[in-house]
Write a structure and sequence with these properties.
This protein is an alpha/beta fold. The structure holds ligand BV8. Belongs to the sirtuin family. Class III subfamily. It is found in: Cytoplasm.
Length: about 240
């Protein structure tokens, strides 16, 4: 449970694919996960995009269409975090590895997508960035500079710098509570946040996950179970 001491400095919540699983979106490393069906090197690296942009566009077009399916809704875990932010305005900061928009659709406002956003694209020629819900192809022209073959998903691939790192570490350095939800703790720098908090702060560290993550032993507290069950209980 969250207590009043947790408010001194703020609450940082790191989320991963597990928080969206019960909304119907796939995780990456569970059995049947995304990386069991497609090779990460081919679709989530700049090299893969240069080698075969059509394959990468298809991978993200399929996931974007999936996310826009009417059946995909925020779940009780997303809604519990949105309620927490309402109760404690300006003290809850969600850093998500997810590229879906379920936190925002649940009502959360203070959300940073460190791995980018599925419903946004950017132009590698003019660096403009756009909301984009349609399929994307190499022949699409940048709405700003009109050039083709320069548009890409606004997503952070392996080997690329995640978004908002300075803001994230500022928040980690100040927080009184760090909660990790629905992530396997395999991808850096996100997987290193708990070690950073332990080293530089006196914050509480809590893992809420279906099962112990790779970094489970680094957390002072943990509750295991489906996010729609454990998150509402923890934040009440
Ligand atoms: C960078 C694209 C530097 C978007 C993704 C060795 C050591 C340290 C680092 C590295 C290293 N070797 C390589 C690196 C760097 C690399 C990395 O960490 N590699 C790993 C594989 C070792 N990291 C990077 O490249 C990062 N960039 O380091 O840049 C730099 C510095 C200067 C200048 C330039 C560059 C970039 C990382 C981002 C890569 N992009 N995806 C997309 O397509 O979505 S990562 C991919 O994995 C996803 O984004 C996802 O967010 C992320 C993490 O996965 P999870 O969210 O944890 O999902 P997963 O399936 O793994 O786990 C789900 C969990 O949920 C499970 O634990 C499960 O039990 C649980 N669960 C399931 N159901 C439920 C549930 N929990 C609750 N309820 C449920 N119902």
């Amino acid at each position: 449970m969250i207590n009043s001491k947790d408010r001194a400095g703020g609450i940082v919540v790191l989320t991963g694919a597990g928080i969206s699983k019960e909304s119907g979106l796939d995780t990456f490393r569970c059995s049947e996960g995304i990386w069991s069906r497609v090779n990460l090197e081919d679709v989530a690296t700049p090299e893969g995009f240069r080698r075969n942009p059509d394959l990468v566009h298809q991978f993200y077009n399929d996931r974007r269409r999936g996310l826009l399916d009417a059946a995909i809704e925020p779940n009780a875990a997303h809604l519990a975090l949105a309620r927490l932010e309402l109760e404690w305005p300006d003290e809850v900061f969600i850093v998500t590895q997810n590229i879906d928009d379920l936190h925002e659709r649940a009502g959360s406002r203070s959300v940073l997508h460190m791995h980018g956003e599925l419903r946004r694209i950017r132009c590698e020629a003019c660096e403009s960035e756009f909301a984009w819900d349609a399929d994307l192809s190499v022949d699409d022209a940048c709405p700003h500079c009109k050039r083709t073959r320069f548009l890409r998903p606004h997503v952070v691939w392996f080997g690329e710098m995640p978004i908002g790192m300075e803001q994230i570490y500022d928040a980690l350095d100040r927080c009184a509570l760090f909660v990790s939800i629905g992530t396997s703790g395999n991808v850096y720098p996100a997987a290193g946040f708990v070690s950073h908090v332990r080293m530089y702060t006196r914050a509480r560290t809590v893992e809420l996950n279906l099962e112990p993550s790779t970094g489970a032993t680094l957390f002072a507290e943990a509750t295991y179970g489906p996010a729609t069950e454990v998150v509402p209980v923890f934040v009440q």
